[in-house]
Design a protein that fits this description.
With 133 residues, the chain is α+β, with helices and mostly antiparallel strands. It is built from two helices and seven strands.
Length: 133
């Protein structure tokens, strides 16, 4: 039986309807692929608390719990674990988005995301964003 990994992710949407995606850095699993910002939910932590923490650590922005809108989730089986990943929409935050951990970042319209290779779990979420934005 594979272990379950809970990861919370955010689709930050700007006023032009673009979504922030981040390129995984070298040395990490799935390096070079593009993903939504977020991270592993720690023991005793809610997905919302995880995102508030991760968005501050990774991007230097402050997000309030009220600005996290649950949107859709991914459930994907990788070779060594099963990933469950809720994706939240975030349209309001405080501070300037700053790259603190990723190889690169890009603000991309959902219709243009096919040009950015994503992990298997992230790709299907893009279709939901295309229908929304």
């Amino acid at each position: 039986m594979k272990r379950m990994l809970l990861v919370a992710a955010a689709a930050l949407v700007d006023v032009d309807g673009r979504v922030l995606i981040c390129q995984r850095p070298e040395g990490k699993q799935l390096a070079g692929l593009w993903e939504f910002p977020g991270g592993k939910v720690e023991a005793g932590e809610t997905p919302e608390a995880c995102l508030i923490r991760e968005l501050d650590e990774e991007l230097g922005i402050k997000v309030s719990h009220a600005c996290l809108a649950p949107f859709v989730f991914a459930s994907h089986e990788y070779e060594s674990f099963h990933l469950l990943m809720p994706l939240y929409l975030v349209r309001r935050w405080e501070g300037l988005v700053t790259n603190r951990e990723h190889k690169a970042m890009a603000w991309v319209k959902p219709n243009d995301m096919d040009s950015y290779p994503m992990p298997p779990a992230d790709g299907p979420l893009v279709a939901w964003l295309r229908d929304l934005i």
